[in-house]
Design the sequence.
RNA sequence: GGGUCGAUAGCUCAAUGGUAGAGCAGCGUCCUUUUAAGUCGUUGGUUCUGGGUUCGAAUCCCAGUCGACCCA
């Protein structure tokens, strides 16, 4: 290879390129196709029988992450899906030629080995290697071995490196998979049906958010990326799918922050012949079984406050208006004029936009002063009717809704409604909300409602935020494999 | 969008405006039960980019790129 300079010892990429070229020149395939493993690392560790050395044979494969070279023998470790396992490679076991070849392996290479299990004198179950193969040559070096990768930009852009060298990242992201998996099992055992609804929509409804726009060439029309799955899932209620859910990617064309990624994952679940009270029981069961079965504890440390969040005890229930009255110290808050509310909010140190409606001023107090302090699981019920146009009014108080917002760890985790199924009431709400922009009303959804939707409870669960909470992460980026960044 | 902070070897980090260093990794040596293995030696830099100030800039100034945090 004439394009490789003579002294390349300082350039790890060039050194590895040279090794690759040497392997090929010697007729070895550095990217071998087939190696059959018998065990993952964790399974192999369990397969060792106490007191019986070299009795069990295993074939394991993974990335070389530790090399401790002692001349004619080496202890090395490989990493696979289940973690690390130590290998003992001995010259007089594998033979001179194989040992020479093995010495050329680099940290980061992916290898497969076959051998027997034994316990070292320090008590670590280890594979005594009899055969080994290079399965994939790594041409780039791994990050440093005990500080790992800490540059946040590289952690997010090259997540594959982060999860190789940072065990806590690996564990956190694997925990997310188990959380989602638990949700599916939980709902399926309660006879909920998982469905998939369109991401490209002609009208983006079901929430108040700015959508992404894209274009379909063949049809010659613009589409929106969905901002919620709500209106599609309700159509399925009309169609007789009485218990449905979707775990789906939602897209909102808004800011990026510690709590916001432009695409995020939401569970939406709808149950016919239930209501917001039924949803309370459902989410409580879901979260307590999640804690018990996945985390193995019903107490989780809340990073921001240092408090322990207790999922096992009583869950507080409080009316939105009562919380606002208590926070403002004003029993007559909802009877005050808008000017009075604005003055009081500003006195609390909040910035109030001139164009805001009455309820928006109040809600600013809720989201800035009340919600962040709801650390223990709290159902905030009976929100003002202006806040959710898709829910039923409270029968004995037409200014509020039969809804709750479950807040935990100072975050809104799950809103739930007694779903509006009166097509005329729903149209009136849409029209009030749309104002001049009547073309944004989802007429097809209203048509579906006119066919009759069973009374139902419905709920959305922000999975990313739930994962922040349950994994103790500081940012949404830590629970999303590839968070959105500006292209580099 | 605004403010604050940051970017130096593959990685983690040092360096009063005065010769850019360390650990790990790499390269070469010794070592057949190591645990951040040890040992001896050693290579490696467009200091994010572009301007400016200065006898002299990683360092000071301006602009930009990317990121983090806070605010909107």
Sequence:
């Amino acid at each position: 290879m004439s394009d490789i300079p003579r002294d390349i010892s300082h350039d790890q990429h060039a050194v590895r390129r040279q090794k690759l070229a040497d392997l090929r020149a010697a007729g070895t395939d550095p990217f071998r196709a087939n190696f059959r493993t018998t065990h993952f690392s964790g399974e192999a560790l369990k397969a060792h029988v106490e007191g019986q050395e070299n009795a069990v044979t295993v074939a394991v494969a993974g990335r070389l992450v530790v090399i401790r070279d002692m001349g004619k023998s080496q202890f090395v470790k490989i990493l696979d899906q289940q973690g690390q396992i130590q290998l003992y490679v001995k010259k007089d076991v594998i033979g001179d030629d194989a040992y020479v070849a093995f010495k050329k392996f680099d940290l980061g290479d992916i290898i497969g080995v076959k051998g027997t299990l034994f316990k070292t004198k320090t008590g670590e179950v280890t594979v005594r290697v009899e055969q080994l193969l290079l399965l994939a040559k790594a041409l780039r070096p791994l990050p440093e071995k005990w500080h790992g990768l800490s540059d946040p930009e590289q952690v997010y852009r090259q997540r594959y490196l982060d999860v190789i060298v940072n065990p806590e990242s690996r564990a956190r992201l694997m925990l997310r998979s188990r959380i989602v998996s638990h949700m599916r099992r939980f709902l399926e055992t309660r006879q909920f049906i998982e469905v998939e609804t369109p991401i490209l929509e002609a009208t983006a409804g079901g929430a108040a958010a700015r959508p992404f726009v894209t274009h379909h060439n063949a049809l010659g029309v613009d589409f929106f990326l969905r901002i919620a799955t709500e209106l599609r899932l309700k159509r399925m209620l009309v169609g007789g799918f009485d218990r449905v859910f979707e775990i789906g990617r939602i897209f909102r064309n808004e800011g990026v922050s510690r709590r916001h990624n432009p695409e995020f994952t939401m569970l939406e679940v709808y149950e016919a012949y239930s209501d917001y009270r039924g949803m309370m029981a459902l989410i409580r069961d879901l979260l307590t079984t999640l804690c018990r079965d996945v985390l193995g504890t019903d107490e989780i440390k809340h990073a921001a406050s240092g408090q322990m969040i207790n999922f096992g005890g009583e869950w507080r229930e409080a009316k939105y208006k009562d919380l606002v009255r208590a926070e403002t110290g004003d029993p007559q808050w909802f009877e005050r004029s808008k000017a009075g509310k604005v003055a009081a909010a500003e006195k609390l140190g909040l910035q109030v936009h001139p164009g805001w409606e009455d309820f928006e001023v109040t809600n600013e107090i809720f989201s800035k002063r009340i919600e962040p302090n709801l650390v223990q699981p709290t159902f905030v019920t009976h929100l003002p009717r202006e806040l959710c146009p898709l829910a039923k009014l409270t029968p004995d108080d037409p200014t509020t809704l039969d809804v709750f917002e479950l807040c935990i760890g100072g975050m809104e985790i799950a809103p739930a409604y007694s779903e509006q199924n009166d097509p005329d009431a729903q149209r009136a709400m849409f029209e009030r909300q749309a104002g001049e922009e009547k073309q944004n009303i989802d007429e097809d959804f209203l048509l579906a409602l006119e066919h009759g939707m069973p009374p139902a409870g419905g709920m959305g669960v922000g999975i990313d935020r739930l994962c922040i909470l349950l994994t103790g992460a500081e940012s949404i980026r830590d629970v999303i494999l590839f968070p959105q960044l500006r292209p580099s």
